[in-house]
Hints:
The protein is α/β, with parallel strands linked by helices. About 45% of the residues lie in helices and about 15% in strands. The chain is globular and about 60 Å long. The chain starts with a strand and ends with a helix.
Amino acid sequence: MTSARCGGKRIKVVSIVGARPQFIKAAPLSRVLRAGADEILIHTGQHYDDNMSRTFFDELEIPRPDHHLGVGSGSHGLQTGLMLERIEKILLDEKPDAVLVYGDTNSTLAGAMAAAKLLIPLAHVEAGLRSFNRAMPEEINRVVADHCADWLLCPTQTAVENLRREGVDRGVHLTGDVMFDAALRFAGLAETRSRVLETLSLRKDGYVLCTVHRAENTDDRSRLGGIVQALRRSGRTVVFPLHPRTRKMLEGWGLAEDLSAASSIRLIDPVGYLDMIRLERNASAILTDSGGVQKEAYFYRVPCVTLRNETEWVETVRDGWNRLAGTDPDAILQALDNSAVPAEAAFSFGDGRASETIVRLIHENF
């Protein structure tokens, strides 16, 4: 790929990440971007646990961040405010030609607002997603980021249509999904390098994988309790990597003992990306409230039950690989028992070359 130039020099792009899903999205895109532009990588520190951060940089071969903000946890206002202050200073010092943000976290929001206020062209990867649930912090983040962005890089046609309904049609591009790029690139590597199945004495299709991390579930005792009850009643071997916040809330609500008492439920620490891929690909089914895990289940053709009442990734439901169950135990178990594999495969997330498409669009604009 030829180098993009701005005023006779290679363009400089500041990329902002802070959470595990963003590390995954950045891996294939950063590799392509750096072939023809100078990338400055900012890690906000939103995910700071080694199992949620450093491990991913190592496994995905993402370059070390040029700036690590070390923001850590805190309320939404505190966390976003600290990020905004520190990102703004870096942008003023670095003077980039463009800023790139991913997804829908507080890191996304802070990066988008900093770029917009400094009049720096902004690209939003994963633009146009909507859950239509404003109680979700992620929904606010993605809407604001979209309305700040100059280039809205949509993973699916549904995302394009969501933006059109909001009156946004300038700078909108259907690119495909960079997570699909990553899924294709790292699947084989996971099978050869990961030993997680052997370590946990698991066999293919012999367990259900569960992940829970969203505040709407972890911070509500009734909802988290419904998930715990479903896991206990399922009678299946369940592998449950515990997000730090989920572990804290399970213990705080007095629910951790309920899970630990069930011999079929395996509570483990968060795993790296390659281990997670291998766990996903070999599970009989996946229970999750994660948007990224829903898509990875779809990519690897594993039935998924989403522990929410809505999803941004409507294609996974439409194409038959995902069922919405919320957190009612009966609904979860019914969805799990009826998570049949569709007869025909569908591909709604591009051709696995979204990173090349996005970088080409950035180059063409300079």
